[in-house]
Amino acid sequence: MNDPVPAGVPIGQIHYVVLICEEAIESLVGKDIIAAGAKGYTVAEVRGRGNRGVRDAQWMLSSNIRIEVLCSEAAALRILQIVETKYSQNYGLVAFTHPVMGPRADKF
Questions:
Q1: Helix, strand, coil percentages in the chain from 3-state DSSP, rounded to 5
Q2: pTM of the model
Q3: Got the DSSP string for 12-29?
Q4: Residue ranges per domain, the chain?
Q5: Higher pLDDT pick, 17 / 50
Q6: CB within 10 Å: which end of the chain, N or C, has fewer?
Q7: CA torsion, points 17, 82, 24, 94, in degrees to nearest 10?
Q8: Is 20 in contact with 49 (CB distance < 8 Å)?
Q9: What does the pLDDT look like over 22-46, one tens digit per residue?
Q10: Beta bridge partners of 101
């Protein structure tokens, strides 16, 4: 039987955090992510529709971003707590996490 993972490739659990928020708070949220213990993050512009209406980025003030973080479980929980406490009342924000498997889990 073929093993799908080559021998010697360490696979471990990592937590995947996704934040979808207003672009206006990107630099603030980025600092909070690092302060929570994550080593980095990725940002992309996104569009969509939700309870705050259409977010189509036609106006710079209405654009949304998606921030993705791979980190430890402890850092993931801190990130969710921080962004919920600091930003959810005044800004459009969706945040969630779930465990994933990946190589070099200790890197995160």
A1: 30, 40, 30
A2: 0.83
A3: EEEEEEEEEEEGGGHHHH
A4: 18-93
A5: 17
A6: N
A7: 50
A8: no
A9: 999 999 999 999 999 999 999 999 9
A10: 13
18-93 CATH, one of 3.40.630.10, 3.30.70.270, 3.30.70.120, 1.10.3720.10: 3.30.70.120
pLDDT at 15: 98
The 8-class DSSP code of residue 61 comes to G
| DSSP bridge pairs for 34 | none
Mark out the alpha helices in the chain (DSSP H runs): 26-35, 73-87
Residue 63's pLDDT band, with cuts at 50, 70 and 90, is confident
Only one residue has tokens 């498997």, namely 101
